[in-house]
Each structure stands twice: as structure tokens, then as C-alpha cells.
Amino acid sequence: QSALTQPASVSGSPGQSITISCTGTSSDVGAYNYVSWYQQHPGKAPKLMIYDVSNRPSGVSNRFSGSKSGNTASLTISGLHAEDEADYYCSSYTNTVVFGGGTKLTVL
Amino acid sequence: QVQLVESGGGVVQPGRSLRLSCAASGFTFSRYGMHWVRQAPGKGLEWVAVISYDGSKKYYADSVNGRFTISRDKSENTLYLQMNSLRTEDTAVYYCAKDQMASMDYWGQGTLVTVSS
User: Fold this and answer.
1) Which residues of chain A lie closer than 8 angstroms to B102, CB-CB?
2) In chain B, which residues have their Cβ closer than 8 Å to the Cβ of A40?
3) What is the four-CA torsion angle of B23, B24, B28, B29, rounded to 10 degrees?
4) Among A20, A67, B93, B115, which residue's Cβ finds the most Cβ atoms within 10 Å?
5) Using the beta-carbon criterion (under 8 Å), do B44 and A102 form an inter-chain contact?
């Protein structure tokens, strides 16, 4: 149950696109298409943004997209808005769940 | 609308026990698995445990296995986390979350557990 690897921080200007990577192993990220992404604003509960690698729940902006190649999943946010500034966590789910260490997104 | 409300947090001494509750409403509780996830102050998310929709399957993180027990009461629409032999490193906000096919689609607001002498 080792944590997935995410960059500690990323940044971008309003309107730009950013990508957050999430690297695991062939036993977690690479094994199944059960990668999710969560957004967390300070003092708030996490919110599901992407599930099953690339699916968006109802109500999540289509500026958020997900993908996977091998043992690495990615979250892309296009057309950055100020309110996108938050922490983002990936997770991989088999019988147990493992999260990434989290990435702080700063909108400059 | 789906609501998850955690309770039972507080300050407890190392080695003692505490039981958290998560009251669920707005969905058919007995049809979904449920998770506990925690977040230490200033740190990232850490998955703690999951229980299947009928309570027949339970899985735990290595860090809590043997000390914590997840359970559910379908008559009360409530999820529980019994925490024994608490350690200072168990200090965290504990969230309950609804399972949705390999993701967690709804989360509670969390309850703070502080383990300190």
C-alpha cells in the first residue's frame, strides 16, 4: 500500500492548461481502470472530479479530463479559473484504496 | 440529496478507544459500500477502511489493521469506525465516504480525532 506519486505543486495562469501526473505500479494504477481524482479546497471535504480514469460525474466541468498510460494517470485542467486553485489527489482502487500524496495547484 | 454526517471525534489519550459514527441519508444506504478516509493536520488523504454494501467484506489499511473495525447498521443507516489502541499518529480528520464503483462520490464534512496525553 505505497502512496502514488504526484508532484507537490503545479501552477498556471488563468486560461492556461495544466496537467497533474499520478504514478503508481503495475499492481495499482496500471492494473485496472479504477483511477479517480479528487479536488479539495482548504477546510473542505474532497470532491470527486474524475472516476474510472476519464469519466466526469454529473456537474463537473468539462474543463477537467483524465487519462492513463501504463502506470501513470493524468489529470488535465484546461482554461484555468481562479476557483480551480486547490489540492488534487489521485487514487487507485482494487480491494483496497491508495491515494497519491496530493498536488497543490496555484492559479497565478 | 445525499448527506453524510460524521460524529464521535474528540480528544483521547494514547492507548484508549473511540467510536466514530457516520449518519447517512438521501440514498439507499444498504445498496452501497462505505469508506473511512483520514487526513492528518496539514497532510494528504489516507484511506482507512471499506465495508461492502451488506457488511460481508471489510478491508483495512495496513496502518490500522488489527486496531480499527469498520461496521454498519442498515436499520439505523449508520456507518461506524471502532478505533482501539489509539496512537498519536492517528490524529486526523476522519471522513466517511460513499462508494460508487471504485470511487468515492459523496463525502461527509469530517470529524476531528486528537490523540494526545
Assistant:
1) 32, 34, 36, 51-52, 93
2) 45
3) -50
4) A20
5) yes
Cell of B25: 441519508
Sorted by sequence, the CB contacts under 8 Å of residue A55 that are 6+ apart come out as: A66
Chain B: residue nearest A49 by CA? B105
* The residue to which cell 485542467 is assigned: A77
Contact B49, B59 (CB under 8 A): yes
B85: left (phi over 0), alpha (psi -120 to 50) or beta: left
What mean pLDDT do residues B73-99 have? 97
HSE-up (13 A, CA, CB side) for residue A34: 19
**What percent of chain B lies above the pLDDT cut of 90?**
98
**Tell me, what's the pLDDT at A94?**
85
